[in-house]
Amino acid sequence: MTKIRDFDKVAGSWDEEPRRVKVATEIATAIKNTLSLSTGWDAMDIGCGTGLVTVELAPYVGSITGIDSSCAMLEQLGEKVKASGNTNIKTALCDLSAGQLPEGKFHLIVSAMTLHHIKDPETLLSSLISRLYPGGWIALADLEAEDGSFHEDPTGVFHHGFSRTALTTLLESSGYVAISITKATIMQKGDRTYPVLLAVAQS
After folding, report:
1. Distance CA 195, CA 33 (A)
2. Percent of the chain's residues with pLDDT above 70
3. Is 65 helix (H, G, I), strand (E, B) or coil?
4. Global pTM?
5. DSSP assigned state of 102
6. Domains in the chain: ranges and CATH
7. Residue 191: how many CB atoms within 10 A of its CB?
8. Mean pLDDT of 139-163
9. Which of 7-21, 38-52, 107-121, 169-183 has the lowest mean pLDDT?
């Protein structure tokens, strides 16, 4: 049985991997290029980690709440917020696997490289749609289905990416409409390349 990964242990060095910073920036760019973001929107970044995507999107929305199950990851994001003086980023400690989500409604919910760590993504997506305003958007970026070689340590990995068909089925069965799936970026690890898909859909 796959165990939950302890992200607290790697939070302090997470941003030291250039590949992670690069892919987060490219995912955020893909979201900005796909959706017409508004400074009137309240957004939520689920599984935000150290906030690499959160910080990139913050200038383009009214507020963004980064949620994660790792205290240490959120502390790293908190330090970035403090250093930048940013006033529209909030954080919330939530265990997504237990269905925990902050109160309130959102115009946009984003996720970057989090869904493959969720054992039951359909249940999560069904709960997220209830937190979106009518017509609100979800934007999910994750690995396209791969052979399991991406993660050297499979701890906390419940899915080896998702095919476009699987993502579409997950979103449709959770009640989303206007589904669109594109390639957000490509991750390079050694001599292997791994496409990252961006799925956007409306409540």
Report:
1. 18
2. 97
3. strand
4. 0.93
5. -
6. 7-34+43-202 (3.40.50.150)
7. 5
8. 90
9. 7-21
For Cα atoms 102, 103, 106, give the angle at the middle one, nearest 5 degrees.
Answer: 90
Are the beta carbons of 161 and 141 closer than 8 angstroms?
no
pLDDT value of position 189: 86
3-state secondary structure at position 79: helix
As given in the structure block, the two tokens for residue 162 are 């998702």
Query: What does the alpha-carbon distance between residue 33 and residue 198 come to, in Å, rounded to a whole number?
Result: 11
Give percent of the chain with pLDDT exceeding 90: 74
**CA-to-CA distance for 109 and 118, rounded, in angstroms?**
16
Is the alpha carbon torsion for 74, 76, 77, 81 positive or negative? positive
Beta bridge partners of 87: none
| pLDDT tens-digit readout, 83-107 | 888 899 999 999 887 888 988 999 9
117-154 as b/e, with b when 16 or more CB fall inside 10 Å?
bbeebeebbbebbebbeeebbbbbbbbbbbeeebeeee
Return d(Cα 29, Cα 183) in angstroms, integer.
12
Sheet holding 177-189, edge to edge: 89-93, 63-68, 42-46, 106-112, 132-143, 192-202, 177-189
Residue 141's H or E segment, with its range, is: strand 132-143
Is 50 exceeded by the pLDDT of residue 1?
Answer: no
